[in-house]
Amino acid sequence: MNIKDIARLSGVGISTVSRVLNNTGFVSDATRTKVMEVVKKYNYIPNSSARNLKMTQSNTIALMVKGISNPFFSNMIKEVERQVNLRGCPLLIQHVEDGSDEINAALQLVKEKNLYGVIFMGGTYDHSEEKFRQLNIPFVLTTITTTQEVDPTVFSSVIIDDVQEAYKATSYLISLGHTKISFLARFPLVQHTTGNRRLLGYIKALEEHGIPYDPSLVEDCEYSPSSGFTATKRLMNKNKDMTAVFAASDTIAIGAAKAILSSGLSIPGDISVIGFDGIEMAEYYHPSLDTISQPGVDMAKASVEILFDLITGQSTNKHVVFDSVLVKRGSCKKIGK
Amino acid sequence: MNIKDIARLSGVGISTVSRVLNNTGFVSDATRTKVMEVVKKYNYIPNSSARNLKMTQSNTIALMVKGISNPFFSNMIKEVERQVNLRGCPLLIQHVEDGSDEINAALQLVKEKNLYGVIFMGGTYDHSEEKFRQLNIPFVLTTITTTQEVDPTVFSSVIIDDVQEAYKATSYLISLGHTKISFLARFPLVQHTTGNRRLLGYIKALEEHGIPYDPSLVEDCEYSPSSGFTATKRLMNKNKDMTAVFAASDTIAIGAAKAILSSGLSIPGDISVIGFDGIEMAEYYHPSLDTISQPGVDMAKASVEILFDLITGQSTNKHVVFDSVLVKRGSCKKIGK
DNA sequence: TTGTAGGCGTTATCAG
DNA sequence: CTGATAACGCCTACAA
User: Fold this and answer.
1) Which of A2, A9, B85, B211 qualifies as a FRET site for A77, CA 20 to 30 Å off?
2) Model pTM score
3) Of A112-116, B37-41, B221-225, where does mean pLDDT reach its minimum?
């Protein structure tokens, strides 16, 4: 079934069918209905490969997600899809492995599918400016830290200020009287990862309040409950006097909480816990966990908006920094009270 | 940059470049290296639209996921991707809205992209045999219930026996002496959904043990902690003497647990809780929640295997039923003990 | 308002 | 071993 068949079957020319299908140019109502009938009857669907080939540009947007299992991304992905579809474009969700080079994957996709634009979600980009330039189509980095100093005019981004927000969380714990505060995050070797940024905020808060930074209170761990659990167990063995845990993600916080609770200690009675992200699970944990809640859906929406502004040429590269909010649910309490 | 340019730049014919790129036919080593050099130098990537157009069949596999936010799918998706890539095929992950008709979406994709095969994950398929036949390429239904009685030779599936597994969970609670057991699941209007199937198992267990089925103990709720929470609150108001909750997903179970714990009751002291699926979060909840654990990764792997067997014609449609295991972590206890 | 023809970048057939 | 050349299905001037 191709456009030629439809043309023959409905007794019109090929281009007329094309015009009907694309709502372009003028077609008489009679012809239009006639063609549509045949299209319906034979369940005809145009071949997008041929279309893309001809059009030198598909209207597809790609979303490159690093870590599809991250529950914080779930709602964001949904929102990106909603927003992209709202603009009449199909969305190609490409999940990239944690270790793999997503920008190369995207580079390939772009060339292959003639993408309209790309949104990168999650991960860290230790890519040179040149790589970015190679991409050569509009793209937005969402929730992403760039490792190298890159000319901000070559890319757009939607982020939060990790240093500042981690500072906020740590300061909160300090204001409650905590001084033995542990910090859990992922610290890969590359610099300027999310984990490293948040560590900076953690350290900054400690320093500003005259609390010496103790590396033995910091543990490297994956963004998962199981990893948070074992890391916290290690911490508790090393630091018998630790009174608070600041986890760089809610998933870690949940693992940390489990480690604490299953040791017979209480939250926040013995140890206060605060997470990061604002996923539903943290709210429904018992006790409900305090967290630094990121406006994920708003960030997703903004990402799509920026991307389409870039596509339509309505604006140049932009960098939007969203504020997160400290959500207090009672898993942190004043020390000694 | 197209194949023509590469041909010109390396001083050979177009088809030679094509042969080099596809490792097809015989090419002298000298020409091969010469061409590859140019390809590398200009970072040439073939246009897949043109390729697909010509090839009448791309090697792309599509994964249609209903409910990407379902944490139970996370690992399955990863495994599907791994397995598909292992076989040298790209995977297109298409997330479909909860309400939308995924088989039509797939139908479109198949026609558009000349897919090799499709895996459907999650949701309920109330589609006629005819729809299935229209698809016309190999496909596997994973974790999916078909509503209508469909000729089993027209599709493949990888599932668990929902009735049996729900029966298992309920029987377990009954064996612990519970009789006032509530059940939480999603009950859409269509028949034979996952929720309805598990309800059947629940009822079957009750009946076999001579416990009258009490509809007021059954609540309709979404597969999320928040929905599980509110549904459980409703249940607790209606049924003061309920002693156990069987939730059709771990996400619901977590919400249910929160409702119970935040009311000042204890688990399993006052109320026993058991979930379904076997997600990490249920294990790290406090208390750790019992569950019917599905072998998600194995199911994902089997799905891909079956799909490729179909594609290579090595076998005909198959239906594999996996066993789930009852994982006891202490959130259920003998009544009155 | 409608039809014809050329070309998008590949692959595959078929002579050299 | 290599190079023309004809499709693949569609869009879009351009001509009617």
Assistant:
1) B85
2) 0.88
3) A112-116
Does the pLDDT of residue B236 top 90, yes or no? Answer: yes
Fold adopted by A3-54: 434 Repressor (Amino-terminal Domain) (1.10.260)
Alpha carbons B221 and B57: distance in angstroms, whole number: 42
DSSP state of B333: -
Superfamily of domain B162-294: Response regulator (3.40.50.2300)
The mean pLDDT of chain B is: 90
Residue-wise pLDDT for B159-208, tens only, equals 999 999 999 999 999 999 999 999 999 988 777 788 999 999 999 999 99
Which tokens is B216 given? Answer: 């007021």
Report in angstroms the alpha-carbon separations of B204 from A48, A89, A158, B124, B143: 50, 47, 52, 22, 22
- The answer to whether B271 and B245 are in contact (CB under 8 A) is yes
List chain A residues with CB under 8 Å of B288. 258
Amino acid identity, residue A151? D
Chain B hits for A6, CB-CB cut-off 8 Å, are: none
> In the prediction, which pLDDT does B174 show?
98
So what's the pLDDT on residue A131?
Answer: 76
State both tokens at A176.
């409650």
pLDDT band for position B212 (cuts 50, 70, 90)? very high
How far CA B18 is from CA of A6, A36, B32, B53, B259, in Å, comes to 33, 39, 11, 15, 63
Indicate yes or no: CB of B49 within 8 angstroms of CB of A108. Answer: no
* Spacing of B133 CA from C7 C1' in Å: 36
Query: Cβ(B94)–Cβ(B121) under 8 Å?
Result: no
Whether the Cβ atoms of residue A126 and residue A148 lie closer than 8 Å to each other = yes
Q: What residues does each domain of chain A span?
A: 3-54, 58-160+296-324, 162-294
Record the tokens describing residue B269, joined without a space: 């002291």
| Predicted local confidence at residue A188, as pLDDT | 80
Q: Which of A 36-55 lie inside 8 A of B, CB atoms?
A: 43, 45-50, 52-53
Instruction: Kindly state the DSSP code that residue B63 receives in the 8-state scheme.
Output: E
Model pLDDT, residue B68: 72
Residue type, A24: T
Tokens of B156: 């493949």
Given this chain, do its domains A3-54 and A162-294 carry the same CATH topology?
A: no
Whether B14 shows a pLDDT value over 80: the answer reads: yes
Q: CA-to-C1' distance for B116 and C6, Å?
A: 31
Contact call for residues B129 and A65 (beta carbons, < 8 A):
no
Nearest to B210 by CA among B168, B187, B244, B179: B179
Beta strands of B186-233 (E only): which ranges? 218-220
CATH architecture of the region A58-160+296-324 = 3-Layer(aba) Sandwich (3.40)
The answer to whether the Cβ–Cβ distance between A49 and B45 falls below 8 Å is no
Q: Which residues of chain A have pLDDT under 50?
A: none
Closest residue on chain A to B262 (Cα): A286
Residue A99: its pLDDT value, please?
67
Per CA to C1' distance, which residue is closest to D2?
B16
